[in-house]
Amino acid sequence: QAWGVDLTVLISGGEAHLKEYSLVRAGEGLTVDRRKDYRYKSLAYRFTGRRMEPFLVRVPAKGEQELNFHRHNGQEFIHMLEGRLEIRVNEAILVLNPGDSLYFDSSSPHALRGLDGADALFLDVIT
């Protein structure tokens, strides 16, 4: 954002070009290598001038000792779709189930992991 470069250019090498709407069908989306241990699919990569970044994210199950904390500018909204997700925001430990939502300040250190030996799948919107 500081350099005025659209995220689509950085992750795909091509310019976003849609301005009125961008439809992404089930199973589609642009794979994004954002974190090595999470799988991201960008859901608005063709829309130019985005004010938010919606992703479909799959987080694997892992042990507590494997948690990697991240922080970045902005805010984040998570809506759970499948599995159970543990998210740590600073000192808080929260468990989300399908249908649960969480909104938080993403400049706070946060880490995620799937629970019960299974992946967690959720919609993640980052501003």
Topology:
Elements (H helix, E strand, L loop, with lengths): L6 H6 L17 E3 L6 E4 L10 E7 L15 E8 L2 E5 L2 E5 L4 E5 L4 E5 L5 E7 L1
Antiparallel strand pairs: 1-2, 2-3, 3-9, 4-7, 4-9, 5-6, 5-8
Overview of the structural elements:
The model has no long low-confidence stretch (mean pLDDT 87). The longest helix is centred in the first third of the chain and has 6 residues, at 7-12. The protein contains one helix and nine strands, in the order αβββββββββ. It has one helix spanning 7-12; strands at residues 30-32, 39-42, 53-59, 75-82, 85-89, 92-96, 101-105, 110-114, 120-126.
Tally of contiguous helical segments:
1
Number of strands: 9
Helix/strand-derived category reads mainly beta
Uncertain regions spanning at least 5 consecutive residues: none
Strands of the biggest beta sheet: in what spatial order?
Answer: 1-2-3-9-4-7
Fraction in beta strands: 35-45%
Summarize model confidence as the mean pLDDT: 87
In angstroms, what is the radius of gyration? 15 Å
